[in-house]
Amino acid sequence: MAHKSYTLAFKIGASTAIATGLVLSALQWLVWEWSWIGTIVVTLLSFFSAYGASERYFSNRLRFLQSAVTRIRNHTFQNSDLVAERRGDELDELIRQVYRTGKIVNTEFEELTSLENYRRDYIGNVSHEFKTPIFAIRGFAETLMNGALEDEEVRVSFVEKIVRNADRLAHLAQDLSEISRLETGQKAIVVAPFDVSRWVADVVDTVESLADASDITVETNLPEVSPVAMGDAVQLMQVLTNLVVNAIKYSNPGSRVLISVEMAKIGRIEIAVHDHGIGISKEHIGRLTERFFRVDKSRSRLGGGTGLGLSIAKHILVAHDQVLQIKSTPGVGSTFKFDLLLAVREENTAANPLAGRA
Q: Using CA atoms, how far apart are residues 258 and 337, in angstroms rounded to an integer?
């Protein structure tokens, strides 16, 4: 493609030479004594001067632009090529625009590649999560059909396993639907004041049976005067429940999970869930809220999880303009926390966390 730049310089030089020759011919014909030699010499000088100037100021940079556009088209654009480019005229500004365009195109291409990889992983994970209980249900049902129905003990055991796997499918479908509605905004939040102590107590009651079965003690550390927070109490209860259930699943038997409520910044309180479980390595923390991501897959599945709890929690907090913060040390434990806005406490504030909802 380089020859096109030289062609442009030649055209500019030729045009300048022709214009110069015509002007000199006219002047010499009308004013001065005619001199073909002088006209030819000046015309050639103007040609080479214009050609050299064009090559110096246009051609090299145009060749660079051609190469840059080609690299952008092939997704091999390199930013380092533009570091030494000088600034000064309109062509330099065009080069800088190409530079910025290349950066944007590269960034968007990388994001699209990442999204495509995530899409493939997501489809694979969904397929796997659905196949596992479906195959289990089919296997138990076929075993019963092939004669196990005659054995009462086996029959009862297999039916119970079929019910558990059917429940797992139902929970998975429900969680996927929940995330979809949160992402598309179909599930709107209803902001209202709610009593935080009562809200925490309801969560503890919800997870009590799971904690007892796992030999985990759930404790709370609450202010003497219960704060009143603003938010959608039902959705935020799901957030806290998911965090506590997650902490119980990844804690060692005989340990404890602590739910704490403390004053944070002015007008905010901090809700935190602390555990003394297996902990999370640093490279995994950033992926915890991804759908179906599990630090310990076997332990999570034994606990009946769908792998979507933290993802749902993240989306609900985003809808409240809050962020889930995670700190963890392998072998020591983890802390999951988020902030809530405080409401002005009123004497007649309902104790029920659903207060204020239609």
A: 12
With respect to residue 125, please indicate whether it lies within any of the assigned structural domains.
Answer: no
Chain segment 102-125, per-residue pLDDT in tens:
778 777 777 777 767 666 666 666
Residue 56: DSSP 8-state: I
Containing structural domain, residue 213: 192-342
CB hemisphere CA count around 55 (13 angstroms)? 12
Domain count across the chain:
1
CATH of the domain at 234: 3.30.565.10
For 317, other C-beta atoms within 10 Å of its C-beta total 21
Residue with tokens 């204020």: 356
Q: Report the alpha-carbon distance of residue 98 to residue 102 in Å, rounded.
A: 6
The model's pTM is 0.57
C-alpha–C-alpha distance, residues 5 and 63, integer Å: 6
Name which of 330, 336, 331 is nearest 282 in CA terms.
330
d(CA 346, CA 348): 5
pLDDT at 74: 73
